[in-house]
Design brief:
Number of strands: 5
Helix content: 10-25%
Shape: globular
Distance between the termini: 50 Å
Strand order of the largest sheet: 4-3-2-1-5
Radius of gyration: 14 Å
Largest sheet: 5 strands, antiparallel
């Protein structure tokens, strides 16, 4: 995963140590050596991924600010 994705939201296909595949949308906080430090935007939890287990990566059309805006509750005045 290129360092240009630090601070960005990306979609990845990841294979865990047991060979299970998952697709995730993550916000990349940093890349150090072979580790990618991020937040999973589905669960909201911090995650660390091994670069050699990221099978595919692309920029996400969704940005964190847009997701936060969509998660706010709407108050109707009547």
């Amino acid at each position: 995963m290129p360092t240009k994705y630090v601070g960005e939201v990306v979609e990845i296909v990841y294979m865990d140590k047991d060979g299970n595949l998952s697709q995730r949308r993550i916000e990349v906080h940093g890349i150090r050596g072979e580790l990618v430090y991020s937040t999973c935007l589905t669960s909201g939890e911090r995650r660390t991924f091994r670069k050699d287990r990221i099978l595919a990566c692309k920029p996400s059309p969704f940005r964190r600010r847009e997701m936060e805006k969509n998660n706010r509750s709407i108050t109707l005045h009547g």
